[in-house]
Write a structure and sequence with these properties.
Blueprint lengths: L2 H30 L4 H24 L6 H81 L2 E5 L6 E5 L1 H45 L1 H5 L1 H10 L3 H34 L18 H4 L3 H14 L16 H19 L4 H19 L9
Antiparallel strand pairs: 1-2
Helix pairs in contact: 1-2, 1-3, 1-7, 2-3, 2-7, 3-4, 3-7, 6-7, 10-11
Length: 371
């Protein structure tokens, strides 16, 4: 990616993230300090702008800033970042608390409907049990009517038991049967009505759960809460803290990165204030021919250009052993004279004479070199 394009992209992200963090922070602080909302908004706005300026100044003038001022500005930057995080936390926690309140209200409504539905189910079970008992009564009365209605009594004179058919008792059984049948029909009607009521309540609960947008918005938090066993409030606080710990520090870091990127993209100046042009380094390894080509070129050059006759090496006449011994004696005398206590004038003349004698014996005269 082009360096200039990357610098402008960093600038866009830094300004956007810093502005968003500043806006959320100021709104959150105004919510926390609702009694003095306008002064808090003004103060928070200037603090957010100052935070960006301080971060830029510390990055550009770190080495030139005094130690005390450097420490104070760094601590101020950290405190301002914490204040921004507190404001963002206040805003996000308010939004989450609002959703939690809506969800709790909906949950209570659903719970009330569930209680009502359970009460209907209990009443329905009572009616079903009563209907079963009524069915048993109907069966017994019908069996009595089928076997006939008889009355037995004991004759006082003879002491015998006499069985007599009674139409009155039959009519009584028939009246009881009609009453019980009516009760059964009434119970059936009530049970059907309770079934309809329970079905309507279940449909109402289903509609409330389907239309509950708050529960859908908090679905991830609710799932994580059920998975971890934490409360919704604890899970929400964890998510908010993770978000604010990344939000404002990332904005400050992007501001510093933007300054560094623009600083690196500026052309370097030479000692005369002119733009320094950097010449690309040549890859000499690609330009040097291979060994075979080089050898071939040398061969051709040697064939085309005749080689000059080499100059004869100079021959230096080496002294014989006697001369070497004499030179060694002169050097010993020279060392003694240099360490003697004679006058400087006489010592200097003797030293010069001995040095000249040594040079003559060594053959330092260029006339002695022959070719």
């Amino acid at each position: 990616m082009n360096k200039k394009l990357l610098s402008w992209l960093l600038l866009f992200c830094a300004l956007g993230l810093s502005s968003t963090a500043a806006y959320y922070s100021v709104i959150g602080l105004s919510i926390i300090f609702a009694g003095v909302a306008i002064p808090v908004i003004i103060m928070g706005s200037f603090l957010e702008v100052s935070k960006i300026v301080v971060a830029t100044y510390l990055h550009n003038q770190w080495k030139k800033t005094y130690t005390g001022l450097k420490i104070y500005l760094t601590l101020s930057l950290i405190v301002l970042s914490v204040i921004t995080s507190i404001g963002i936390y206040g805003l996000l926690s308010k939004g989450f608390q609002t959703n939690i309140t809506k969800m709790e209200i909906d949950s209570k409504q659903v719970a009330n409907i569930e209680v009502k539905k359970n009460r209907f189910k209990e009443t329905k079970q009572e009616f079903i049990l009563e209907k079963k008992n009524t069915e048993k009564d109907i069966t017994q009365i019908r069996e009595a009517l089928t076997t006939g209605t008889t009355t037995q009594y004991k004759d006082r004179e003879t002491g015998q038991i006499i069985t007599v058919n009674s139409s009155k008792i039959r009519k009584t059984f028939e009246a009881q049967l009609n009453t019980v049948l009516g009760d059964r029909d009434t119970l059936s009607t009530k049970i059907e009505a309770l079934n309809d009521s329970i079905t309507n309540l279940e449909i109402t609960i289903l509609n409330m759960e389907t239309d509950n947008e708050t529960s859908t918005e908090l679905g991830v938090i609710k799932s994580f809460s059920e998975l971890s066993g934490w409360s919704l409030q604890a899970v929400a606080n964890l998510f908010i803290l993770i978000l604010i710990f990344v939000f404002d520090p990332l904005a400050i870091t992007l501001v510093i990165a933007t300054n560094q990127s623009f600083k690196n993209s500026k052309p370097k100046k030479n000692m005369y204030g002119e733009d320094k042009v950097e010449t690309p380094k040549r890859d000499w390894s690609r330009e040097i021919p291979s060994v075979d080509v080089q050898a071939e070129l040398e061969k051709k050059l040697s064939e085309e250009i005749p080689k000059p006759n080499p100059l004869p090496k100079p021959q230096i006449n080496e002294p014989d052993p006697n001369t070497l011994n004499q030179i060694r004696q002169y050097e010993i005398e020279l060392e003694k004279i240099q360490n003697s206590n004679t006058s400087s004038k006489r010592r200097g003349e003797a030293i010069i004479d001995l040095q000249n004698a040594i040079k003559k014996l060594k053959g330092d005269n260029p006339d002695q070199i022959t070719y």
